[in-house]
Amino acid sequence: MEQSRIAAPIGSALDRFIKSRQDEFPYASGELSQLLRDIALASKVVNREVNKAGLIDIMGAMGSVNTTGEHQQKLDVLANIRFSRALMKGGEACALISEESESYIDLNNSGKYVIAIDPLDGSSNIDVNVSIGTIFSIYRRKSKTGTPIQPEDILQKGTEQVAAGYILYGSSTMLVYTTGHGVNGFTYDPTLGEYFLSHPDMKIPEDGKIYSINEGSYNSFPEPVKQYVQYCKEKNYSGRYIGSLVADFHRNLLKGGIYIYPATAKDPNGKLRLMYECNALAFVVEQAGGKASDGQKRILDIVPESLHQRTPFFVGSKKMVEKAESFH
Ligand code: P6P
């Protein structure tokens, strides 16, 4: 019989919390715990740079574009370097999939885990001081450790995630993650350089009255999406769209709501990427009692065919996602 877990008290430091939950990780002898610590450490460095963005000349686009054609802001590049370095030095991850890298990065070590990451999502908001975020997924490698990375290590569907989460660099910085045993949120105290448990066992309200979608693309939405948007208007729901996925997702997680990035004329498969944006948030939202689909199919069941593949994304309160799906 599973030992009833004593809830960690609010204010527990992240390190202590991770250690106290280590027994939840099957056959992990501390590597996954260390990996979560490596990610948290990198986020503290990125947080410092995000908060200084206005002071040091790292604002604004770096001129280059990333693998998916989006203008790279300097902080994107810095965040990618910070997370890659932390994971490489940490030694627990053998490969890294990143929005900022065309193909996966072989970290040349015998780590048991593969990380998929969007180092800084919503970075076009940096210059206007809007919240931005990091999104990450953790998978176990399928092939034998110490052998060359195989395609089956890299293109894994969302149900294979062993952990996932995000960091929100907002009015306060928060780390929210799951290892498949619920969702816990930690708030960063920069004066102590530590994350503390502030939102234990997070659950998304089953229903809500907030819908997040870029209605500027309304004319090119698929018919079912147009019908759902009209439905939201008839119900007098609130439209809330920050233009930063992690910020919209986090607000909806706390208050109830739905975020939709559907197929549009510009992005016929949707704009968001399966491997390092949608899968992680789909895992978190399901663990919090919510739902995530492409409008019809469960996100976590989508078998990836390429690293940067996009998917329409409907994520949030279970009843709201189901209502949106009912128009399809
Ligand atoms: P649009 C940011 O580029 C992002 O990936 C998400 O963070 C955000 O929700 C979305 O794209 C905004 O896209 O087309 O509405 O500006």
How would you sum up this structure, described in words?
- The structure is a single chain.
- The chain has 328 residues and is α+β, with helices and mostly antiparallel strands.
- The chain has two domains: 2-199, Fructose-1,6-Bisphosphatase, subunit A, domain 1 (Fructose-1,6-Bisphosphatase, Chain A, domain 1); 210-326, D-Maltodextrin-Binding Protein, domain 2 (3-Layer(aba) Sandwich), CATH 3.40.190.80.
- It has helices spanning 14-20, 31-52, 74-90, 151-154, 223-234, 245-255, 274-287, 318-326, and strands spanning 61-65, 71-73, 93-98, 105-106, 113-121, 132-140, 161-169, 173-178, 183-189, 194-199, 210-212, 238-239, 258-261, 291-293, 313-316.
- Helix 2 packs antiparallel against helix 3.
- The longest helix has 22 residues, at 31-52.
- The chain binds 6-O-phosphono-alpha-D-fructofuranose.
- Residues 121-122, 124, 214, 243-245, 248, 271 line the site of 6-O-phosphono-alpha-D-fructofuranose.
